[in-house]
Design a protein that fits this description.
alpha/beta, globular
């Protein structure tokens, strides 16, 4: 099984692009990434018409609190919210995220951690090969 430490291999924007490609492949949709900078709580989005159907927040290294993120996203109209982090989380932290974002996150499947990202890389080999910064540090590829 793949076991990358994304914080030491990828820049924040490289991490977002990796998550865009993995979730696009996994969900069979095309997520859009945006320029670096203030993002209003949206790093990636899948949008139909003028509504944001799915938004994804990617946290490589968390510099803001979960409450800050909630304050950003509560102003946006959307159907699904994915919280992605480059680290693994404890049960307590996962439950805290589900509680804060309970309007949109009702199960663990919407919280993507380091372990899940590595599982998705094993599942989506094409995406794995596309992100050369990962496979340059890997003997499996």
């Amino acid at each position: 099984m793949t076991n990358y430490d994304f914080e030491n291999i990828l820049s924040p924007i490289d991490f977002e692009y990796l998550i865009r490609d993995l979730l696009s492949a996994e969900l069979n949709i095309e997520l859009t990434a945006f320029a670096e900078g203030k993002d209003k709580g949206i790093d990636l989005r899948y949008s139909k018409k003028n509504d944001s159907s799915i938004i994804v927040q990617c946290k490589r290294i968390s510099k803001s609190t979960l409450e800050d993120e909630y304050e950003k996203v509560k102003k946006i109209k959307f159907e699904k919210y994915y919280f992605v982090t480059s680290c693994n989380l404890s049960v307590n932290k996962t439950d805290e995220i589900k509680e804060i974002f309970k309007e949109w996150i009702d199960s663990d499947e919407f919280i993507i951690t380091r372990n899940k990202i590595n599982q998705l890389l094993d599942k989506h080999e094409t995406v794995h090969r596309k992100h050369y910064k990962l496979w340059l540090s890997s003997v499996s590829i």
